[in-house]
Task: structure prediction
Amino acid sequence: MRMEVHLHADIPMIEGVSKKQIKHALAPLLDYLDAEGLGDVKSLEQEEPGLRFDEKELMFLMCWTGEIGRGFHPALDAALESLGPLCYEAVEVELTLYLENGEQESRLLFVGPTAHAIHEAQRRCMIEDVSALLARQFSKERVAEVAAMVDGLFEQDWKEHASDVKKPERAFETATRPSRKHLH
Result:
């Protein structure tokens, strides 16, 4: 069964990273998409740039819509895991699946140089999302109270799992933000 998917992320890369290193890291995804390089990954949406590396800004940009099948998720997982050590900081990758029944399923995937950096990016995103949601109804002071509680939960979670033998280099969670295509 094939379905349509959209990937979106602006991933800052460390100084000195080359397009060749990024291509090598993304090899599992490029192989899955039967692409020789980043420029061969064309989006179904003409306005979207696909996958590209801005060498001047040291930014890897993902804005791609395409058809996928069963092997896509393992290929994407492997690519993000390899890309992690090349990242300057951890950021979220938005993944939107467009299901046959017209519904959308959204997830946030995180990629970054270390497990701690990814944990901090997850913390930042969660606090931003919860704060934005609560701000529609409550005062800044009330929102700050909840944000502090969420911050504490993340701190406790990190302490509880800091001794784990191997923390994943990226993590997955269901997105709480509304799904939408990002057109450039």
